[in-house]
Amino acid sequence: MNFFPKFIFSHFSRHFATLSKLPNNFTKIPSKYRPQAIRDAQQALTDYLHCTRYIPFVYAEHIAKNSFFSLSSLISGINFSTTSFNRNVLRFLRYHPINEYEFFFESIGIDYEEVGGLLPSKKFFFSEDETVLEAACALSGFGFPWNKLGKLYKEEILIFKASSKELKARLFKIKECGFSNIPVIGICLAFPYVLRGGGVNELGGEIVALLNDLKRVFLDFDLGNHVEDNVDAWYEICRKIRVFYDLGCEKGKIGELIGRNKNLFLRYPEEVLVSKIEYFSRFLVPKEDIGMLILRNPEILDSDLETPMISVMGMLKHFGLSVEKRDSIAKEYPYVLGRNKMTNLPNVMRALNLHEWLFDRIKNGNHRLLANYTLNDDEDLDKGFRDSFEKIQFSRTPVHTMEKLMFLHRVGFGENSLTMKVLAHVHGTGSELQERFDGLLGLGFEFSKLCRIVHMTPKVLNQRPETVERKVNFLCHEMGVSLDYLDIFPAFLCFNLEKRIKPRYRFHKWLTENGLCTRNYSIASIVATGEKSFIARLGRIHPDALNEWFENFSSKESDNSSQD
After folding, report:
1. Single Gene Ontology BP term (predicted)?
2. Where are the beta strands (DSSP E) in 254-356?
3. What is the mean pLDDT of residues 424-443?
4. How far is CA 291 from CA 347, 357, 413, 514, in A?
């Protein structure tokens, strides 16, 4: 392993795990010679860019050493030799100039698969437009890691249209706030727009507000002295701070709050912070409120909000919901009751239409109730659920059935016998059911109402999302009825659109328009009435109705084809 340079090893360990991404000819090079092939090609490309294309050596080397896939594609067409491969690559480059932008974009850290979409049209060489390279060189000269410049390019492309003079002026302006080079780099990588500027010697108002917050945090509250003196450490801490601005917290207003809770940024990994934000986001509350909740109560990050079991009624009581309201909920939402996991609590509350109420309780000083909630061993056990659960373990497809059950728990159904009845009627994998459920939400269904529909008519989830969408569009646009009607008649979504819903509705519309039917039949009566009863009704409405139905409207459907 000693002969294997660290750079080469890191690339090979990362890239050769998926050889399918590499050019076929390159993979034909024996594996023991691939490190040498890469080294020789990097040296040849560095010499070419420096000596032939007149790119300063240090930047030519950066490009060559950080463009693995582009380089692999280049050398895939060159015969490998253990003694003369470097010369072979140089000879090839003399007669086959490369697209310098392709190698450059990959070298600054942009994913190779994205590079093609960034290449300038009708430009091949830096000499045709040196702005991008000059900007990169200016940033690298300040101390920015070359292979991290892609973060700046992807988020703020205007940075690379500025002159080196403008960039240096903006960097100096940030330094004037009291930061040295490494903190400035960390700040810029986390907040690329600070380099966008407003002019050579100007910073925009939003940028000034951000920098005032960061001065307060790093200098006044001394957070900077707790950060290791390297770019990665500063980038990491600034990225955590950015999370709160991305949630909508106002720049220039939260510096003191961040400073007073600096341990939040020193103690907790970004993954913990993001996971808690994602958890509270499922309550569908303003993102800024989530940010302020965590900033003001960082200890909430210690709470296990994933694995504990909860009693739905026990949790409502724990957070102070009155007896009267709990009794009302028990009658209205029995399928949500019983036990569930803490990780599903946001959707449980959405199913009860109490998500905003609970989050307000958490936000307004009751966040510790999440951490100190405990479930008694025998609390809220449902015997019907337990008996059915045991049968699943000995069924023919226990894993498949458990995936479906986990889906129902995720969307708010509790451990109760009603949930097991729903489980028996839904078909598909857990992921397919989730996709169908999400599709219905995307059509405008309220979460709580959709759960009730699934409880009343589980077969709604047995259809492809596009099938349900066509039915909803017909209901709302042609029939002129809102989604609220499905609270009354959810089974509408289970009938065949082409063979049942459309012909029957359009026929009744024809009868009404022609004065043959004065009675106003409900949609449920039109659609759900059995075939024999429907035909008998037409005979009673008008003698000619049956002929018109069979000749111009009926799809000749049988009862077996009337539902999806």
Report:
1. DNA-templated transcription termination
2. 309-311, 339-341
3. 95
4. 20, 18, 29, 61
- In the chain, the percentage of residues whose pLDDT exceeds 70 is 92
- Cα distance between residue 459 and residue 347, in whole Å: 21
For 484-511, write each residue's pLDDT tens digit: 999 999 999 999 999 999 999 998 888 8
Distances, alpha carbon 239 to alpha carbons 48, 190, 319, in Å: 37, 5, 34
Cα-Cα-Cα-Cα torsion 140, 143, 149, 155, nearest 10 degrees, comes to: -120
Tokens 């000693």 correspond to what residue?
2
Distances (CA, A) of 491 to 423, 461, 471, 524: 17, 11, 11, 9
* Model confidence pLDDT, tens digit, residues 339-359: 999 999 999 999 999 999 999
Least confident of 134-143, 207-216, 552-561: 552-561
**Cα–Cα distance, 495 to 477 (Å, whole number):** 17
Residue 314 amino acid letter: G
pLDDT in tens, 309-346: 999 999 999 999 999 999 999 999 999 999 999 999 99
Q: What pLDDT, in 10s, does the model give residues 453-488?
A: 999 999 999 999 899 999 999 999 999 999 999 999
Cβ(340)–Cβ(348) under 8 Å?
yes
Q: Per residue, what are the HEC states of 381-433?
A: CCHHHHHHHHHHHCCCCHHHHHHHHHHHHHCCCCECHHHHHHHCCCCCCHHHH
- Tell me: pLDDT of 556 over 90: no
Q: What is the pLDDT of residue 405?
A: 97
Q: Which two tokens stand for residue 26?
A: 């390159």
The one-letter amino acid code at 546 reads: L
CA 214 to mean position of chain CA atoms: 28
Q: Is 556 left (phi over 0), alpha (psi -120 to 50) or beta?
A: left
For 53, half-sphere exposure in the C-beta direction (CA atoms, 13 angstrom radius) is 29
Rounded to the nearest 5 percent, the helix, strand and coil shares of the chain are 70, 0, 30
Instruction: Return the axis-axis angle of helices 231-246 and 181-190, rounded to nearest 10°.
Output: 40
Residue 417 tokens read as 């016998």
What three-state secondary structure class fits 495? strand
What is the rounded CA–CA span in Å between residue 59 and residue 145? 11
Please tell me the distance from the alpha carbon of residue 163 to that of residue 305, in angstroms, as a whole number. 49
CB 316 within 8 A of CB 414: no
Task: Quote the pLDDT of residue 13.
Answer: 44
